[in-house]
Amino acid sequence: MKNLNKLAKQYKETNDPNLLAQLFQLLKQTIKDKSWYLFYRKGFVKKRYEKEIYDERIEDFRKVKRVKTFRLCDIKKIELKDVEQELSLLILELLKRYDSALPFENYLNSKLSFWRPSVIQDANFVKDIDTINESDLVNKDEIPMFESLAKQEPIYPEEVIDYDKMFENLTIIEKMIINILRKNPEFTQQQIADIIGVTQQQIVKYLKKIRRKFIKRL
User: What is the pTM of this model?
Assistant: First the structure.
């Protein structure tokens, strides 16, 4: 994508939020396709083990290696939208780090080839797959329905924020908003909304939730 490489280079040089919005528009289908594959088709390793089978050739038992896998769509601990938001956050980070002298598309593809959602790297995630009821895995309040978000006046966190402490209790979309604001404090709510793919009113709601979560941890 010549346009993608050109936009990425221009954004790296100018940090223009309009260019960033155009970049994410170009990558919109890529994000959807990659997320869909990881959520519905990709098999992740759940367990590696050995099993004894009877081998008629040697007339005895022998050990064979086996791998048990799972798919994210079967677990109910993460939704497709979560994967899309986390992948968008990764792309934002890659834009900040890549060398503009090189084609961004090649750099992006190399990183996406081995990327997987962070929830899978949680030490307890795979272990808990068989031990927790599905109803316990889904937190309905974690990501509110967009249709129910009320229009309210913007409220930004004003306190000196310990981001590491705060990130422990944020959802993926909330982490993405904070990361965008940390790196681009001049961005407006509408610019953030354009990058993430929600409305400005929804950004207002998320900012209020972020503020409440942080205050509770003080």
Answer: 0.58
